[in-house]
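User: Structure tokens for this complex, please. No commentary.
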Amino acid sequence: MWWKIFGLVSCIKLLLMEAYKSTDFEVHRNWLAMTHSLPLNQWYVNDTSIWTLDYPPFFAWFEYFWSLAARLVDPEMLLVSNLNYDSRATVFFQRSTVIISDIVLALGAKKLSHYLCAHPLRKSSNQNHKWFSPSTVFLCLSLCNAGLLMVDHVHFQYNGILTGLLFLSIGEILEGNHELGAFYFSVLLNMKHIYLYVAPVYGVYLLRNHCWIEGKNGAFDVKKSLSKVGRLGTIFLLTTLVSFGPFIVHGQLFVVLRRLFPFKRGLCHSYWAPNFWVLYNIADKVLVILGRRLGWPLKEIRGSMTAGLVQEYPHTVLPSVTPGITLLLTVASMMPCLWKLWSHPGNPLHFVRSLIICAGCSFLFGWHVHEKAILIVILPLCFMAVLWRAEAECFLVVSLSGLYSLFPLLYPPEMLFVKAVLYLVFISYSFNSLQNLFRSRHPNSSFQFPLLNSFETIYAFGFSFLFVFEIVQLHKLSRLVSAYPFLYLMATSFYCSLGIIYGISRYYWNFLKTAPWKRKQKVF
Amino acid sequence: MVPIVLLGLLLRVGVGLYGYSGLGKPPMFGDYEAQRHWMEITYHLPPIEWYFNTTDNDLMYWGLDYPPLTAYHSWLCGAAAQGVNPDWISLGASRGHESPGHKAFMRGTVLLADMVTYFLPAIVIMLTDNRIFGAPCPAPMTVTGYALITYPGLILIDHGHFQYNCVSLGLVLAACCALFYRRDVLAAVLFSLALNYKQMALYYALPIFMYLLNRCWCERERNGLPGVLLKFTKLAFAVSSTFLILWLPFITNDGSNVLQVLRRLFPLSRGIFEDKVANFWCVLNVFYKIRPHFSNEQTALISGIATLLAVLPSCCHLLVTADRRTLLYSLFNTSLAFFMFSFQVHEKTILFAALPALLLFEVEPFHSLWFLTVSSFSMLPLFIKDGLVIPFVALTVFFALSMSVIAETKNVDILERKRFHSSLTVAFKLSMNLIVFLTGASLLLEPPAKYPDLFPLVISAVSAGHFGYFLLYFYWSQFKSCRTKEKIS
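Assistant:
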């Protein structure tokens, strides 16, 4: 089944080749060129292009691997000085690399879907159905995810292979192969360090469930436990050493790290990712306007935070936020979840749930979060969504708002209908398949979507108004909208942030209040 | 159902991102410019001048050569264009206009026309119970609807190459729906509209006429001979009044105007085929050059007789045994016979044979899928010219793969191995490999300098061979299908 779904969605990806591509396309072309034509010690130093290499070394090797094939297609793209080069062959080649490397995603999804088949966690009457079984629905939701299509195959990135590694790692941990799972995760961390956000979950889960050994009399066995910690640590350190080693030899460890963690960027990305800080910024704006009316003594505002640049913005009324505060908030918000994970060992599904929640917390409170990071929440959530109804409901709300929040990425007018249709196909499939899976009773009123309550349904309809707003904005149909070009972006991140915050909090709450010993579930 | 419709939209919007025919190729451009030019002409000139060569209307530059309904549709689009940006259709000055905004507008008009005329009847088909085709247990024809919506040939020609085939095919589809539900007068009106959009709908005229004739005769059982006459009069009145209304602006005292329109619609001077077409004459032309031996009038006569001979048995059979399934077989056989043998055929006309093949999908899954794949492939030279190779590959693989997956979930063997001899399965696989090979070869290999048209010609010949087989097979099953039914009853 999995390769058929993969083949079908690959055709759609192929079809999207001609679509708009963002500057990330040039970023990756530049990395192909740099890894191919520069010596190793120049990879993290060269700054011919402004798009310097800022992913960990394994990703650089990944680019190097593709550059070997690129030589046969069009050697021109491998010249570092050939900025913004995009011949037809180059576009075709680079788009193909994304489609082909998605095989890893397919393998990861296959691993998880096999787990669903082999361990029927929830007795479903569809268990053996070809199209409507939980495992197939999961395959469709993850492989054909509209977010991945928009970000990877239109905007241009390689989230597919990264998510595939994450899925492989989750799959191994679910099956109890903790060390192999830890290895996959170390590789993943060395490809893109954004996954550091979910590393605490791996730490807590593996320490408690893999390393914590109790002796025969129930006492904690220090010796055995420490040896397990040692093995895991070795796996992680060896992987990292292979990745960073060559650069350490060249004495460039800190050069690389500085490239990986640039703290000069502002609290919010140019377009605000729909998280907690959007509400904070808007509260500040509202207070400023209110303050002007009431005649409070206010500082002069220098730069507008909606100016569309990656820059720091000083809040006027509310205290300004520093990276330290965001880190503190992120860690604090993860704490209850990690505590629950520690105190309820033996349930690998709690591991997946914590992963989703920690990714969600870092999305909500992190420093300089990109809107694309919501995919780290949505994709593992696809797995849980096919298992329990309450999680499916959260998945739908988070998908509705999280995927819509990707719309501003694909801003050119010709992408308007492409992204809308992609979104609608995926959302309508999600509703159809999940409704079918949970046999949810038909909603009482016709104005209610399946698996959503009336309040959430109204929220879902709100996106159509947001879309009309975008059309008005694009075609300059209204003078008011043209005067404030960033009004639409602000409205989008505000509206999407409501859904995302609500969805993640609800998921968090569900997780904290589950009492697994009362549930009739058998995991193994 | 909603996801299927949205998926169809996604495929169309995706193909729309690519180029269209004649993109950046002055001075004549292509079908895209033709459609734009017609909007310009119809909007700015009175109907009486549309089909005439005047100072403002140069018939040598994409003169209107489709029936009045196309012209009215162009006028409507022209009016919309005038509202959005008058520069797009300003008389004379706008020739060869190309801009991203205009492309979005043109793509939008096709999408809208597709939604209104093609998707609606396809949705009706999706909800139709397949018992009306003699299936034993009730089930909606979702698969047929899905095939109709995702068939690659039509999407690529309309939303890539740029034409409005969806309108005439959609109207024919709607007429078929009306026939399935026994709304004969409505069907007659809808079919007349289709005829007035593209004259190629004439391919279907004989079977539909025969079927309606039989339906009239069926009235005899209920109301006797007066009932038959009444029904016939009703149908005749519906057709003639539809035609009269549509042709009203062109009717003058001496009738010269109507004649001029007809001359534009049926150009005898353009030869028996254009470019490379996967039909009988084009293949024959390789071995025996037709043009030096016969004048255009003679070839027209010969091809007319050949077509009639190929069509009549199927139509006469339909007249005798008019059930819905035979209607579909007959529609397929006549339209494919027209494609193979008639005069002045374009490669795109294969879409008219594809429509009944799509409707036959649940009856003949194996041959239908095979034919549909080959039919898309037969237009490959056109797609290469328009830069539509990537969407062609994507959509064709998507269609074939998804159809086989759907058949598998319904526990249908798409290769129908129980029904057919195993050599046919082998032939199918060979044919698919040949298609893949020829696609690859025509993209990657340089043709020898002596034969620059080698690959288009080979593609046409291979497709024509396939079509010949399909014509024989479907002819055979048209006659066989009713015999098996007689046995059952």
